[in-house]
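Bit of a strange request maybe. I'm writing a small parser for structure token strings and I need a real example to test against, not something I typed by hand. Could someone generate the tokens for this chain?
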Amino acid sequence: MSEEPPVTPSWLAPDSTAWASGGGGPMDNSTSLGTLPPGDSLRPSQLPLLVNPWDIVLCSSGTLIACENALVVLVIWQNPALRAPMFLLIGSLALADLLAGLGLVLHFTCAYLLRSDSAQLLTVGLIVASFSASVFSLLAITIDRYLSLYYALTYNSERTAAFTYTMLVLLWGLSLCLGLLPVTGVNCLAEAATCSVVRPLTKNNIAVLSVSFLLLFGLMLQLYVQICKIVMRHAHQIALQHHFLAATPHYVTTRKGVSTLAIILGTFAACWMPFTVYSLIADYTYPPLYTYATLVPATYNSVINPVIYAFRNQEIQKALWLVCCGCVPTSVAHRARTPSDV
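Reply from user aminoacidic:
Good idea to test on real output. This should exercise your parser:
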């Protein structure tokens, strides 16, 4: 009976440590955590790296993501005042990012300790589902912000709450379906030629995810353009009513609000677009270094999300101050909402 091939301790191509070899040719991944030659046959400088440093970076990012978003989830969960649709969507985003961070940590643990294909499939499925839920939650937040401006008079009705719950059920259901792809056998473990730049996802898996992201990004871009138009129109109407001039603070804060929208969308694109485009044009034969270089910035979006969507919110700031020191500073308690908070 032939021996079972060693499990690849990385979710990338089988030569994920090839870039780290000090010699000339690529290094077979079976020597990274599989059977090593006797210690006397290799000099210390020729020994392969036991742990891929890029996997350590991803694990560290996952730890930061999990801790940061766990704080947001805890604050929203324990504060009964934070039950409005907007906070439910922010909580969904934080929960998705929290699970994504835990998935990165669990994948590192399973890959280098358990070294089991089944465990890696489960953790990769968790990561795919969590990051999908994170992106879908960002879209849901964008839709909610658009509706809160377009239907300002009826936004706080029961219909808005029902619509929010419907969005949450749909986005988590679709994310779960995407996360089940590698677990249900739609993976490239049996045939390496079908692998994408992220093992064990197939090229078809990654194409579906990438195209979905591009479509969602286009929809978010369109919604934010509409939000900017509404904000500028409201600002113009207020200016006519109060005879404001262009140099007044109201116009300054309105321009700041539009700039905030640009920062939100720009940050999202800067984090995810490189990996999305690269995963569409590359395959498993490309150097794993390129995959890591585009995948790591994508995870940083989950680090930035709490700063943009949670920690800037006045109500969440109050709750955080109460949790941390039992009081709320006057500057936070009486800060007025401005167009920059859209």
